[in-house]
Amino acid sequence: MASIKDVAELAGVSITTVSRVLNSRGYIGSETRQKVEKAMEQLDYHPNQIARALLKNQSYLIGVIVPDLSHPLFSELINWIEAYANERNYKILVCNSLQDSDKEANYISMLRQNRVDGIIMCSHSLEIESYLKVSMPIVSFDRIISSSISYVAGDNYKGGEIATKHLIENGCRNLLHISGPLKYDLLPNRRSDAFQLTCMKNNIQFSIIEGAHIKAAFQDNWDFIEQVISPQLENYDGVFCSNDIMAYTLYVYATRNGIKVPEQLKIIGYDYHSFTRLMQHPKLTTVRQPLDRIGKALCSALIDQIENKNPDFVNNTVIDVELIRGDTT
Amino acid sequence: MASIKDVAELAGVSITTVSRVLNSRGYIGSETRQKVEKAMEQLDYHPNQIARALLKNQSYLIGVIVPDLSHPLFSELINWIEAYANERNYKILVCNSLQDSDKEANYISMLRQNRVDGIIMCSHSLEIESYLKVSMPIVSFDRIISSSISYVAGDNYKGGEIATKHLIENGCRNLLHISGPLKYDLLPNRRSDAFQLTCMKNNIQFSIIEGAHIKAAFQDNWDFIEQVISPQLENYDGVFCSNDIMAYTLYVYATRNGIKVPEQLKIIGYDYHSFTRLMQHPKLTTVRQPLDRIGKALCSALIDQIENKNPDFVNNTVIDVELIRGDTT
């Protein structure tokens, strides 16, 4: 691989001059600049970013930790994070925590060893100690790690409220909410808070059942519904599911068991990720989280922190959500 | 952040000793090792992998270039690549080429600048010049870049053959194949070759229509079917689609237009990724590409090349595929 010395020799200039061209520093005549650029092209020279990172103490690398790379919510989010990071000249290192806090701690250590400039944390594991010890910019998705760490979230409270109101306005009087795992201190729990309060304000009977499932596998969701939800499903005329895959599975379960959706049971989901948008039967009624805007906000918040070199700057962002009307309500 | 000097001071040893512990080099007594390890833990010291990468000329970074991170095929593939890379202590930098060859060339340059140890190329763009110039290990997915670059692929010929035979065995006599974009020199084109030959051997009428769509968006596929396929759809009693999203969209199009699937029209797809596995209505008949094994093979082939330091070692891998019987045939 060509070195900076080779470039300098071919261009007939000093190494310092090549370095100045690379770093756009100091005065360089346009003729000299062209000679250097031509030599770099001829030699197919690529400046060593690792050496530059070491020198400048900035790697332009961002670590992104997610619970499941193949889940449609996270793959779409990563897609947008990558796009915006790339616009600002950052690269992303993706880490799949698989909900395992030991694996996650190892990833954090690896990211620190690789001197990433910051971390976007989209994980749902219980253990957050490791993040509190990290002395670099972090932004979290849908989670408050500490008051000194910025977060980006969809408006979970509003999402829970519009979903519940929609069911009530469409005539439901006995509501069930299948929540996310409430033991984790996650912002999506506010969907449950909103569900509960909206039911109480409207004198609606309700229950909340905790679903621990993040896995985007049909059978896992099916088994949960069969074992936990099905024995009491006849008590309800409306269900608000905290994610679309659960909502879809519930729809399939209900129709296979002779329950008409939406006539006898109304179902609303949450997310509106690529799976929900692709799937046409049924078109789910759901709450859209704008993953493009969330991805952009995560990137902006993190890179602004990195570039201001001020890790104490906290800037929480809550992104609006909207109701998507489908066939299941 | 603690430095190696801080660790040496706290442990009461020289920097060289700490370095020996880190690199497991030279004789170190167990007591000294414990003192150093304890000091690293107390100071929350993380060795600078960037400095080590520069020194050792190995970064333990792998670049992965895909056309669309949010596509269920590629998100699942990346999920497995990340898992196997992590097992062997490598990290992955993901790059979303969005089918744009300029963007892809920039990514390759960026990966070279960041001194990744190798590249996994899953892209479908026309331009492969940039890859030929790269003097580092590369493994490609479903594509022959050159005779000196290893590839991993599902058995595309067999996949095309079992799909076509399945349609014929189920009584189809006029077959259509909606292929991938044939202008790219991709291994999935062998699905079309197998389709064609199998039809000819069995005296079956057939046509091939090129679908240029990689986008996992329902509307794009719908528009293509409405404009290109629909005018001649009545000529066929069986369609082999080169991907599941096209097959699913065709199913929806047919049923909305009064064509009964599978009675009047049999449809078979390709991939069996997370979308297909989640979706229950219909259960698609399709060909499963084992993305776990493909991801593992891509990682193994690349890391073996990296660690043998022999970029000329070519090791192509073809992974078996299987028919998944669903409701659409």
TrEMBL record, chains A, B:
<dbReference type="Pfam" id="PF13377">
    <property type="entry name" value="Peripla_BP_3"/>
</dbReference>
<protein>
    <submittedName>
        <fullName>LacI family DNA-binding transcriptional regulator</fullName>
    </submittedName>
</protein>
<dbReference type="InterPro" id="IPR000843">
    <property type="entry name" value="HTH_LacI"/>
</dbReference>
<feature type="domain" description="HTH lacI-type">
    <location>
        <begin position="2"/>
        <end position="56"/>
    </location>
</feature>
<keyword id="KW-0805">Transcription regulation</keyword>
<keyword id="KW-0238">DNA-binding</keyword>
<dbReference type="InterPro" id="IPR046335">
    <property type="entry name" value="LacI/GalR-like_sensor"/>
</dbReference>
<dbReference type="Pfam" id="PF00356">
    <property type="entry name" value="LacI"/>
</dbReference>
<dbReference type="InterPro" id="IPR010982">
    <property type="entry name" value="Lambda_DNA-bd_dom_sf"/>
</dbReference>
<keyword id="KW-0678">Repressor</keyword>
<dbReference type="InterPro" id="IPR028082">
    <property type="entry name" value="Peripla_BP_I"/>
</dbReference>
<dbReference type="GO" id="GO:0003677">
    <property type="term" value="F:DNA binding"/>
</dbReference>
<keyword id="KW-0804">Transcription</keyword>
